[in-house]
User: Fold this.
Amino acid sequence: MAVSKTDIPLISVIVPVFNEGAAIVPHLEVILRELDRINGYRFEMLVIDDGSGDDTIERLEQLAREWSLLSWLALTRNFGKEAAIQAGLENALGDAVIVMDSDLQHPPALIPRMLEAWRGGVEVVEAYKVHRGHEGPVSRWAARGFYRLFQLLTGMDIHNQSDFKLLDRRVVSSYLRLPERERFFRGLVHWLGYPSLRLPFEVPARAGGGSRWTHFRLWRYSISAITSFTSAPLQFITLLGAVTFLLSTVIAVKAIYDKLMGEALGGFTTVILLLLFLGSALMISLGLLGVYIARIHDEIKGRPVYLIGRRSPRPDRRETSPTQHDETQP
Assistant:
């Protein structure tokens, strides 16, 4: 386990945000005050603005003047949460990194327990939800379905895991060495296989409005996550072809039997149903192939995962002594 040059571990707290201007100051202050109470560590908070269209940056500039441990960087546009997390990990200086949301649904009071586990030799501390909070039945059912399908296809159980994690520097370095551009953070951390500990937490009620994740965005995110880890859906095409062949064989045998027995009829219904079935099977197969071809296309283009537009001044905390809440600032 690495230690900082001052022999006091530096912990980087990465917080991706998007259009959080209305509540970001009081929310981040809760996290910052929790960090300020923890002894034996130095902290830096790095907030990644994922192309917000509101006054999030102005709020962050205001907060950075009051809290010297806070710095921020703004991406040129909305690249997505996975890209924002990667930007944070690539710019974090800490001996360990904590990734968490800004809306307080990842309770900052859990951070001391995460750090205690890390100091005990655990390289990945994963916080998981005991329950999913005040979600509607559709969202709850969809989440359960995704986790079960993901486990069935990949063999990896990430049920109720979240992006609220502590990663040792060695884990961060391994994560950043992975070559793919479209990432599924919680899945890749699990895939790395470092010693881990799971800590449960209760999801508090969301403050400051509802989730910005629409059902369509969650659907796209789920497809991306599954296809990132397994090619099993491609085998579904083979299975679909086998089922189609067997069904066609049964229909053909019946048609020949009816012909030989002199009972053959017009058969338009059978033909139409068979054509519909075959057409559906072909379209599903082409769709699955298209998903994987699109992933190959995105990887081959080799465009950067994100671009940084602006960033706040940032001291080299690897060299300096702990500096937290600056009481001299207004």
User: Anything to note?
Assistant: The mean pLDDT is 80. The longest strand covers residues 10-17. Residues 232-301 form one domain.
